[in-house]
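Figure 2 data, in text form.
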Amino acid sequence: MRLEAKSPESTRRTHSQLSLQNVRTLALTAVGGALEYYDFIVAVFFTKLLAAVFFPPQTPTWAAQLSIFCIFAAGYLVRPIGGLFFAHYGDRLGRKKMFALSLFVMVLPTFCVGILPGFNEIGVAAPLLLLVCRVLQGLSVGGQAPGAFVFASEHVRTDRVGFACGLVMSGICTGILLGALTATLLNSVLSKEEMASWGWRIPFIAGGIAGFIAVYLRRFLRETPVFESLKTSTDNLSELPLKVVLRDHLPTVILSMLGTWIFAGVFVVFFLYMPTYLQTQWHLDARAVFTANSWSILLLIVGSTCTGWLVDKVGWAKTFFWGNMATGVLVSVFFYQLAQGSNSLNVYIATGFFIGVITVVPYIMVTAFPPAVRFTGFSLSFNTAYAVFGGTAPAIMAALVGAGAWLLAPLFYIGALSLMGMAIGMGWKKPSG
């Protein structure tokens, strides 16, 4: 299967320069991605407080927290729906419009969560309104992530697409790190009573205000040159983009979903599941684990940008192959040291840098699908696979680990995904864009 697509962008963009306008575009895209994922993920760090505020006081703690997790899960379940909506109109009406709209749909409910009355004030309406806000966030993030990668990549010349994807990925990871650091800071400077009373509202209100500023700034972004060309090109489609993707690009969709499996599986297990796993199964100190996790995400941010640069210099296939090999080796060393009882958290931190290789996955998608259906193809593949593989990964790991004999399930899972990444790196031709 060839991951190559002829498009109206190739000749004109190859000779363009990375202008000041493009630098500003990439910066605003990365900042917007950071705020988007901050808004989407920050609630995870305040689960206990949200459960106490939005459910009756007599509700058992475990039941209230489980209910909050179910509300969070709703955001993942609707992600593919939102992705297809924003992608459809992004391919028809323009990337810029949908890019700005998807961010607005994220920041508005985030701000609303910060000012929502609790159960004591409005009763059962409180958790229902929280659910509505979370569903809107899920719809938004389904369009924002593909939109950010497509928007950034279509503003740079063809030999800078990898770097553009790296910057967007770094922005997304920065938002996740910002959420973790915000939770840590607030819990350090405010008492438990202050946090329960009003402190938990701060990250949502602040995230909403910052997001509104980012929405305003996106007014000054230009439509991508690629979409401008499509409007006057015979490549522009009269057919439904989703129909074209499923009919003409199904092999590329399948490959993209396999790549997203690696992207979502490795990321979710390593950064979101492992902190709890290391505390409960290996009895590591919570503060040490979360500190290591934050440092590892910081190195992921650096690794994502470096990966994008390498893709442009040596090609995606070599970068993907060796990056996945390094990830597999370091994860194996990490678990070996765990089993030996030695300090392995430094290896955990270092592994975050090499997991930045998952940046290759969005690069593959933005260069594999032709411009006329690029947004739709990316969104369909990425959001569907992320919902299936990313959303289920923690539950699968918990079930396997709980069986006793599968204590090393995270090692085997990440190792298997690394092998699949190496196979993709060896087995498919580099897309030319």
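Caption note: The radius of gyration is 21 Å.
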